[in-house]
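Listing S7. Sequence submitted for prediction.
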Amino acid sequence: MIPRSLIRSLLNGQGGLGSGIAANVAANAIIGIAFVVSVPLILPYIGVEAYGLVGFYVAIQGIVTVLDLGLNVAITRDFGVIGYDPARARDLRDLLRTSEIIYVGMAIAMAVAWLIAADFILAWVNPAGLSERTVHNCLLIMGVPLALQFPLSLYGGGLYGMHRQALVSVIGVVFSLLRNLGVIGVLYFVSASPETYFGWNALCIGLQVPVLVLALRSVIPAANEKPRFRLDLLTRQWRFVVGIGVVTLAATLFLQVDKFVLARVVSLETFGYYSLAATVVGGLYWLSQPVFRALLPRLSKLVESADRTALLTLYHQGTQLMAIAILPISAICVAFPRQVMFLWQRNAHTASETETVLAILMAGGALNALLFVPYTLQLAFSSTRVQIVMILAGFGVSVPLTIVLAGTWGPPGAAATTLIVNSMFMLFGVPVIHRRFIPGDVWRWTVYDIAFPLAAVTLGTVAARLAYRDTESFLLIAAQLGAALLFTTGCCIVASGHARHWIRSQMVKYVAKI
């Protein structure tokens, strides 16, 4: 039995930035470990080619999550701003009811559209060992979790806005373990087929939705009147919502364009290897999202109160925390790609097939993760204009560039697109964001929040690379990379002033409680 005190603390606890980030990081760490452990155990049952379908599904899932055209981010922001004002309890419940009706409609539309598109998608991929019937069945099953992404996004976003990061994290961990580790038993005892894998995934997500519904309804304040549909709650900020929608959709297409192009020009098996490398890079999402989710409602409150000093302090803390979360692990993957893949898959051939792609994708993914904090700042100001221009320009460059580079150099060429375009964002887009919202701060952000941590991590990684000794022993490789990660993380913390002081204060508070 789960203690009632724990349930009560999850429902009522709101915590600060530290507890919010800690809850998300802990949950994402558990989810990431479960996923990393499960993939090598799943591959013998479904094969690398079927994992190409998994990679294709993940790419489609990324696009589906933003087809709400920014409503989720706007809802999270509104819940964070008005969620604790008793006078606006009715508005909050009306906002939830209005969003529910819209999201249910989008889920139904998604299911119907996917059913119609399944045959066209079958003609796009290039199966060799898998039968067309197997691929078609997998595509049909994918439609269920894809449609359920809409309610998952709505209720999860509402809980984040209410600062219930710990509650969302617990629910996410439970169902992630069930989904990623439970499928191993299902594949072993029921049927070792791709259809079984996707069917179990659909079942777990179907169970997660009602749990999130009950959780959100239990934490929003009560109102005397029944909730009703009020479109004005959304249309009064329609420019902001549409702006978020354009940004997120274009950004997601930009991040997935390499996969769609490759799925067409290479075999499904080759695409499967590329998907394995992309899966490792996807771990950066698990590390960056806790910072993004914790920062957005808090930055929004500070913008509303016009407290520039506190806003800048939180912004720099957030950027440096993001750097600490992202840069060390990314540097290790760039410097030791073959060893990282070998540790994960325990297969020398897989490691050699993916090491180059992993290094390039990880470098581009790290830059993209660092850009999340300036993006969060724009959302806090209810503005998306700069981000729209950046993303549309990047998308316009990435599509032809990916076609050319993928057609010439294959997977490494496709991976290079992400690195090139994200470098352009960092060099040309970020200064514009700072001039627009926090003028006079760009050099401080560039030098103290990015350059110093990056230089420290680079020096630490070079030292780790020079000290590394080649070996075929799994334990020795793991020990060396683990020591290198700890060392580079320490270097990054030392070079991050705001984050270092914040981490020290959190540790003092924790020790005081003990």
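Caption to Listing S7: primary sequence and predicted structure tokens for the chain studied. The two ends are 26 Å apart (CA to CA). The first helix runs from residue 4 to 12.
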